[in-house]
Amino acid sequence: MSMFCFQCQETAKGTGCEIRGVCGKVEDLAKLQDLLIYTLKGISEVVIKGKLEVKNLKKANHQVMKSMFMTITNANFDESAFEKQIEIMLSIRDELRATTSGIDFHDAAVFEVKSRESMLEKAPYIGVLATENEDLRSLQQMIIYGLKGMSAYTEHALNIGKENTDISAFIYEALAATLDDTLSVDDFVALTLKTGEYGVKAMALLDEANTSKYGNPEITEVNIGVRNKPAILISGHDLKDLEQLLDQTKDTGVDVYTHSEMLPANSYPFFKKYDNLVGNYGNAWWKQLEEFKTFKGPIVFSTNCIVPPKSEEIRNRIFTTNAAGYPGCVYIEADEYGKKDYSQVIALAKTLPAPEEIETGSIVAGFAHNQVLALADKVVDAVKSGAIKKFFVMGGCDGRMPYRKYYTEFAQSIPKDTVILTAGCAKYRYNKLGLGDIGGIPRVLDAGQCNDSYSIVLIALKLQEVFGLDDINKLPIVYNIAWYEQKAVIVLLSLLYLGVKNIHLGPSLPGFLSPNVAKVLIEKFGISGIGTVDDDVKIFA
Ligand code: FSO
Ligand code: SF4
């Protein structure tokens, strides 16, 4: 076995990528990512055992977030970026350790590597499989994956100037715990729920950052057609990047389109002032290779999900920033104030043709919590009158595997008196089906990005309050969630922490769940997989 990774839904055979990642991650990249995580565990132990004041560790806190984010599925394929990040983190670790004394540290807090070769030599001993007990391994990895998702969300919030050092303190606590061999399976089950608790805090922080800066999303018809001007496509989740790109393209004759998880940006009042924000181009992340060919212009990846571009022509048009990276593509660095210079992207756009039309018309977005709560009376009346019988929470991720057509067929097959609440790129499986409305309430209410699952939780809590229910699980809501990568893991753990039961998780249960851990999730939380569309529609109806 040359590598081992089982962090995403598309993991080979549902058990683990051992030769090369289905996502395109190769052996050396996998090793460098493992070593980076190991280094973060070491830093965490120094912080925890050394009782360091997390509030004073801004540089470490931010770099830990970035490092975690870099290792999310298909965020960063650039081995040199990982080598550099490991060096940065080792120097932070050593600086912090130098402030402590008389403490006996784990190898992760003291090991040294001097070169890429020594990094690659060290890696096979510290990866996922180094934890021999499969239940401990399963729980520890689930926690680490949750922390990766959490770090992604807190990094976006930080880019808008909001942070909560309690979340960083928890990240240290949880990562350090994975080095502590005195902890039991029960301890890690408790830590898993605590990860969900901090997941809620992270999503709330990002929601606050986004809405305080960009306003509350509002119902918006988002154009999915094109105009006849050169343009830049911006993908990923980072709204600050979109803001800077729009500021810099204003009056240049270059248009901007959102892609994939950036679609919800069109619903924020702040972004409506930009005439050159045309709308959304294309679909979920996995269709990008096809859609980048017809888009023609430059593409900015503000985060994952990158599909390795096969052609040099497309690689030359891809720019990355934040935690994202791809070898051979230009990386746009922020200056010390977080400002980025997109001039080379804009200059390239001017030399390229306008996007080719692949769709026409519009889709409706913007049903985040504030907007839905503004319609609360209407929604409650529709439920009381029986016009709406049930809500299906179908948020999460999309993916490239053909079996994901389940979600399209499921959305088409559920009764017409039901409403889908969605967030994340899973929406692309059913947001263009024209599923109609119920008394003016669209049957697909799109709350936004995967992190806006927080909005769905707020909506559920509001409905619970309005209907005077003592348990969120008594609401007429069914959870049929799709997952792909680690942001979905933190969303799931957050829902479990909030007491949501009987979540159906598909298209397959995570490969990182050991049989015993899966049993705990099934028995304690009623988690289950999915079946056929026909069977599930009957079960859920
Ligand atoms: Fe999707 Fe990718 Fe948002 Fe993820 S674009 S899969 S869970 O990164 O983050 O929903
Ligand atoms: Fe495999 Fe997913 Fe890991 Fe990529 S991220 S190596 S596809 S398990």
TrEMBL record:
Binds 1 [4Fe-4S] cluster. Binds 1 hybrid [4Fe-2O-2S] cluster. It is found in: Cytoplasm. GO terms for cellular component: cytoplasm. One of its GO terms (molecular function) is hydroxylamine reductase activity. GO terms for biological process: response to hydrogen peroxide. [4Fe-4S] cluster binds at residues 5, 8, 17, 23. It catalyses: A + NH4(+) + H2O = hydroxylamine + AH2 + H(+). Its cofactor is [4Fe-4S] cluster; hybrid [4Fe-2O-2S] cluster. The modification Cysteine persulfide is found at residue 397. Keywords: 4Fe-4S, Cytoplasm, Iron, Iron-sulfur, Metal-binding, Oxidoreductase. Belongs to the HCP family. NCBIfam families: hybrid_clust (TIGR01703), PRK05290.1 (NF003658). This is Hydroxylamine reductase. The lineage of its organism: Bacteria, Bacillati, Bacillota, Clostridia, Lachnospirales. The gene is hcp.
